[in-house]
Amino acid sequence: MERIISEQDRIRRAEEIAGRRRGTISVKNINTSKNKKMPWLVRLFIQTVSSMCIFGLIYFLSINNSQIIEAIKPYLSQDTDLQQLYNEANSGIQYVQGWISEVFNQDGNTQAHNDNENNNLNNENTNENVNATNVEENIVDGENEEQKTEDEAAGGIGGSDENIELSQDEQDIAYIKQNASFIVPVYGTLTSGYGPRTPTDIISANHAGIDIGANEGTEIVASMEGTVELVSSYGDYGNHVKITNGEISTMYAHCKTIYVNQGDYVTQGQKIAEVGNTGRTTGPHLHFEIARDGRTVDPQAIIEI
Q1: Is the dihedral of CA 53, 58, 63, 66 positive or negative?
Q2: Cα-Cα end-to-end distance for the chain
Q3: For the chain, where do the domains classified as CATH 2.70.70.10 start and end?
Q4: Which end of the chain lies in a sparser environment, N or C, as judged by fewer CB atoms within 10 Å?
Q5: Longest CA span, the chain
Q6: How far is CA 175 from CA 65, 90, 121, 144, 297, in A?
Q7: In the chain, which stretches have pLDDT less than 70?
Q8: Domain 183-301 homologous superfamily, CATH
Q9: pLDDT (tens digit, 9 = 90+) per residue, 86-142?
């Protein structure tokens, strides 16, 4: 009697035959072997050995005063609280994170502090350079100002190319104008100017001053304040008086009468003499000179007659 094989058995046998031909086993067999449970005796043996290893390790650490044992003793002497362990572990993690953040922030602050210090040093160096430049400029300006003052006092020497080319006479005139004040010593008629002229037995070839014609006895005043350096009646000048003020001097000649004495200090406009006709003259007049260090200049370049 032919055995009836179900459709499922037929498929399973076909798979087994195909598996043997390929040298493999069926998926069903693999799944079945994986689902097989380990015998309870084996599991008990493995658990026993594992427990003995753990306790042996703990005992070894305890007899060697291990720091690990000291750390876990509080937990061994009391019931384990998993929530407490989680909180402590979380606190430790947060502490480590805070420490790392602090280190990085400290490095950043240190870098920022160093940058600020570098900026401050750069600013200080810039200020020092600016201050040094200003000091040098002030020194140069002061030296230039002093040089300018000296040049002006010397009659413009060294101020510019134009001033350098000034003649001695022009330098003396500039100095006299800057350092003294003058007024007209007597009002009258200009009869002879300063400088070269046609000489005669009475008139000199080079006139050292100007001649102002006026009536005899007309008052003569000091054109410049100063000290009476000389009062004399000798020579071609007849009665004459010389008044000095530093390097500058004034001369009044051919006077009739002189009212001051040598060594007197006179003020500008003070009466010092009268117009006369003494010495080598062609008539009553005042011979008036202005000089610097003995070098005469044209009085009309100083005052208007």
Answers
A1: positive
A2: 176
A3: 183-301
A4: N
A5: 194
A6: 108, 97, 52, 19, 11
A7: 1-5, 22-38, 40, 62-164, 199-202, 204-205
A8: Glucose Permease (Domain IIA) (2.70.70.10)
A9: 566 666 666 666 666 665 555 555 555 556 565 555 555 555 555 555 555 655 566
